[in-house]
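Lab manual, section 2.4: Encoding a predicted structure.

Procedure: take the sequence of the chain (440 residues), apply the prediction step described in section 2.3, and record the output as structure tokens. A sample record is shown.
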Amino acid sequence: MEVAALVALTLLLGALVILVALAVGRRKEEIREEQEQAAEFTAESSTKAPVSKKPKQEKQRSRKDKAAQHTFSHPLLASSLKSHSGNVTCLDFSSNGKYLASCADDRTVRIWSTKDFLDREHKCLRANVELDHATLVSFSPDSRAFITWLANGDTIRIFKMIKKEDGYMTFKAAPEDFPQKHKAPILNIGIAETGKFIMSASTDTTILIWDLKGEILASINTNQMTNSYAAISPCGRFVASCGFTPDVKVWEVCFGKGGEFKEVARAFDLKGHSAGVHSFAFSNDSHRMVTVSKDGTWKLWNTDVEYKKQQDPYLLKTVQCVSSDGSRVALSPDGRVVAISSGCNVTMYSAASGELEEEMPGIHSEEITDLRFDINGRFLVCSGDKAIRVFHNAPGYRAAIRDMQDMLKKAQNEAMKQRLKQQIAEAQSALDAVLVGPVD
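Recorded output:
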């Protein structure tokens, strides 16, 4: 009996030891798991902490960025258009004068209403450029579409502007982009005012003429070693280019009576600069051209010639100026005012006298990328950073007043004199209004 009891006690003690060992082991496992969970929680907390601070850091950074934004003021500054979050690279006015298109590296094209230029707020419509961004933009002649050059796609994409039933505008990209044909970076694109062709020009010596469906009609070799600028004339007949050589070459894009493409024919050259030409511009009727060169001058030309009879354009004026690589030149639609960009600065000249009329230094924080007059000649706009600056064309008002005063001296009809006096008074009143003071 005692032996049996001893065995039973031994077994019981052994079982208790085993149970205690199991309990201790389980507790160790629980402690280990609790420690791991605590470590995980600590890790999560440490990773979450910066997240909670990040918005503050971003806010602080945005405040710094905002404080560092370029500020500019000038008596002729009408407004600054500020909706792009990236640098603006190109501008274009619609033919009907209602819109200004701008593109930037923020993957958007913005459409601004020109009637809002003088308002405090400037609303715009946004067209998104999917999976890419546009470096160039150009309106169609009917102002119902625009074309863009895609930075990564290296091709042209067409956007249609569609007015919805509620009156709002929407944008629809064409199903297919143009084929990739250029082998060098693009300088400019455009659509002829006739609606018959599209032009694209690259930095090598290539200009391509396309139909509106993306088929190539012609390829032009400018033979200028490199192109620095190219454009279509406002009349839609000519394509011109400039570059390393000291001349501007002009071609006519010819179509038959039925609208079929015939050929690209050499029209005329502008010869007279002693160094390469940075840029050029046409007057609205294509009867005048202005060029700006590395030789430190701008030149005004009469291009209203019968080139098919071997009549050459003739030089009207040569004026000393400051220019640099990337300089742009703009000629007011009436041919009265010349504007030139150099770096971040713009100067405005009288086309008739060549006199310097206005200087606008430090307009943008970066080099000016585009410079244009609106189709009515009221405003001069330029881009260079995220903002678009809109200036009153005061030199244009002054030139118009001078011309009407000259006409008044020669007028013999009393009714004509009275009409001119009234127009002079209205122009002077408009000039006085734009000279009131700077706009913030």
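Check your result against the sample. Confidence is low (pLDDT under 50) at residues 5-9, 19-24, 26-67.
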